[in-house]
């Protein structure tokens, strides 16, 4: 490779290091061209998988301000530059390596921290960003639903819940800062009043209204 080609290759690698939140260095020796194509497809658009010479990779990493362990730059090297979710990238590499044993994960880095092969495997075992966001959204929805059910309850029921909560807080003040669960517990313990106590009794239809008039009092006098 002539100097101009080397300079261009180093510049491209350095740009990839700068534009990526992390990278995984792999040994691809033994993989066919078809397997490499399948690996690139499995990694998706947010990962750029490139074969690189170790000497050029070392220079490019230094130019980009990335410190790499020299032990990672042994043998044929291909680098997965991660620009998306690092967990998904680690999962794809791990799963492909299980199905295609020639692929070996050597290590890498994430957000400036050097990662060993074992640490990348542990990263692959984590839940993806999308799953975590979905769980967070579900938890927020459940909390809002609990609050809405209290606000939409009849006034008498809400009063019983707040009364039960106040009684609990008198003996344990920390319950007021403990989140929605104590409120739900207080709601379960709040006594349910009889409908007769809540709804006024209706007067019989044939009952005559009693009127007190000044004229009647004058007549009797």
Describe this structure in words.
The longest helix is centred in the middle third of the chain and has 23 residues. Strand 4 and strand 5 form a beta hairpin. The protein starts with a helix and ends with a helix. The chain is α+β, with helices and mostly antiparallel strands and 221 residues long. The protein folds into two domains: 124 residues, 2-Layer Sandwich (Alpha-Beta Plaits), CATH 3.30.70.1730; 69 residues. The chain is 55% helix and 13% strand.
What is the percent of helical residues?
Answer: 40-55%
DSSP, total strands: 5
Overall radius of gyration: 36 Å
What is the element string, with H for helices and E for strands? HEHEHEHEEHHHHHH
CATH architecture of the largest domain: 2-Layer Sandwich
Distance between the termini: 129 Å
* Spatial arrangement of strands, main beta sheet: 2-3-1-4-5
Helical/strand content category: alpha+beta
The CATH superfamily of the largest domain turns out to be: Ribosomal protein L10, N-terminal RNA-binding domain
Detail the poorly predicted runs: 192-221
| Beta-strand content | 5-15%
Please identify the top-level CATH class of the largest domain.
Alpha Beta
- Quickly count the helices: 10
Q: Can I get a quick summary?
A:
With 221 residues, this protein is an alpha+beta fold. The chain has helices spanning 3-19, 33-43, 54-63, 86-99, 117-124, 129-151, 155-171, 180-189, 195-198, 214-220, and strands at residues 22-27, 47-52, 77-82, 104-110, 113-116. The protein folds into 2 domains: 3-126, Alpha-Beta Plaits (2-Layer Sandwich); 130-198.
